[in-house]
Amino acid sequence: MDMRYVLFLILIPIGIASSTQILGIFTLGCKSTHMYYQTLVKILLDAGYNVTVIDQFPQTHKIANYTNIDVSEDGLIKFDGSLKINEIAEGSLSNLYLGYNSHLINLQKLYTSKKIRTLLNSGQKFDLVITELDGAECFLPLAFTLGTSVVGIYTTIVPFPNVDWMIGNPINPSWLPASLSGFSTSMNFTERVKNFLDYIFYFIFGMVYTSYSDALTAKYIPESPPTRQLFDKISLIFTNSNPNLISRPLLPRNVEIGGIHINKANALPKNIKNFIDESTNGTIFVSFGSTIKFSSLPKEHHDAFVKVFSTLPYRILWKHDEPELVQNISKNIMAKRWFPQADILAEDKIILFISHCGALSLYESISRGKPLLAIPIYYDQPMNAAIVHDLKIGLKLNYKNINEQLLRNSIEKITRDVKFGENMSALSKQFKDRPTLAARTFLYWIQFVLRHRRADHLHHAGKNLSFFQYCLLDVISFLFTILVILLSLTYFLIKMILKKLRKNPVKRKKN
Question: How far apart are alpha carbons 312 and 324 in whole angstroms?
Fold first, then answer.
């Protein structure tokens, strides 16, 4: 075969990729979700695509084919690690309001941002737009205005049930927990009642929130259809889920990529590596994520951690926002503001991960095979912790109930009972046993949408039905009405026959 022809076939897709323009709308200023989205961006850049991202994290160095539209100075809500415990919303509904309200405020700030107005007025049309959907469906009008095709993405393991419904996925509150409920799929009667009520409130919140966002959009993009209609036009939804955690029915246009952010472990800095290797009994890694100030814990709870850690026979790597508070208390503690978490969890001598149990941390712990002591704080973390408890890969604690004895007993139970490690090791093997890497799955479906522009064949016919039609309430009502009519006719017919028999009784012949 002519080598010039072979070279032509190789260069054609490269040329197509390099001319393709992809936009990411990732406005929630949270470091962990930013890391997740940057993983996706890197995959696209490595494939040769031109990527533009709207976010609150300024570009620190020039990257080829990457454009950053920084809106961090436009007044958007940002979760940058300064959030204190007493500022946290408590309960499923409060967290639901926090999520929806944050995105609604950010949408308003985006519409008035000079950078975004310039982008809208330029008339530029991207080949593909990727937008977050964690209660952020309000950004769909902006996404469809700027892009030819749109895909959505979730960072929570289970989407909001009202959004799940609009996507078309089967939902059932009897076993599928609402994402912020704090329940797992194993619910008792009381939890199922609460979960059912949560579902109702999610739908009410969603409708009210969407009406506000649509009214806001009408001021700036008057030609945009309502958000509800735009859900039917989304080509694909990438979910941060995995059937090893929660197995549930999903439509074909839902693509599970849970754990996509996890890469091969890198070598640790020498001081950290030596600290771990020199431990006699193993090392415990402690991190509560990038959103919460651990130092804002009530003093009695914070002191419980310090007292227990300083007297354990293990070494402690502690990610702490104020490491100077705990660094010199005991020689077995190393505290820093930041640690390479995924790389540390890959070390053989790490015997336990004490975590807030965010979705990304949960996946990293599973991938590296390290049992968990889950101490959730807010949002989707309580549900993730419930999953840990149900799978018997660790224990969960309520941070409000933390005391010295409870914390010590929980750590000793996990480190001494080999079943937790064995269960996590088995789950880790299952988690990594997949037909293809999550990154390849993500890239394939992105390219699929780019090739075909839409993926309507992955939708289902039920999306065109109303709620009453979808649940067969109209058919049930019709059949019930027919049954009532038949029973009524039968009743009146029998009543009429009995009445006639009473009027004309049959005369018996005398002997």
Answer: 20
Class of domain 21-261+436-464: alpha beta
> Identical fold at 21-261+436-464 and 270-432?
yes
Whether this prediction's pTM lies above 0.70 is answered by yes
List the domain boundaries for the chain: 21-261+436-464, 270-432, 469-503
CA–CA dist 492, 469 (Å, integer): 33
CA 139 remoteness from chain centre: 17
Residue 42 · residue 59 · CB < 8 Å: no
Rounded to an integer, what distance in angstroms lies between the CA atom of residue 57 and that of residue 36?
A: 13
Cα–Cα dist 128/279, whole Å: 50
Q: How far is residue 489 from each of residues 326, 481, 486, measured CA to CA in Å? A: 82, 12, 5
Mean pLDDT of 95-121: 89
CA-CA distance, 14 to 50, in Å (whole number)? 12
pLDDT digits (tens, 9 = 90+) for 237-282: 999 999 999 988 898 889 999 999 999 999 999 999 999 999 999 9
Angle at 390 between CA 259 and CA 415, to 5 degrees: 85
- The CATH architecture of the domain made up of 270-432 is 3-Layer(aba) Sandwich (3.40)
Reading the block at residue 332, the tokens are 């077995």
What is the pLDDT at residue 327? 78
Cite the beta strand spans of 250-401 per DSSP E: 254-256, 283-287, 315-319, 333-336, 350-355, 372-374, 394-396
Nearest 10 degrees: Cα torsion 17, 22, 28, 32:
0
| 41: pLDDT strictly greater than 60 | yes
For 188-214, the pLDDT digits (tens) are 999 999 999 999 999 998 899 999 999
In this prediction, residue 505 has a pLDDT band, given cuts at 50, 70 and 90, of low
Of 319, 268, 336, 338, nearest to 35 by C-alpha is 338
Q: Which helix (H) or strand (E) is 302 found in, with range?
A: helix 299-311
pLDDT, average across residues 330-345: 93
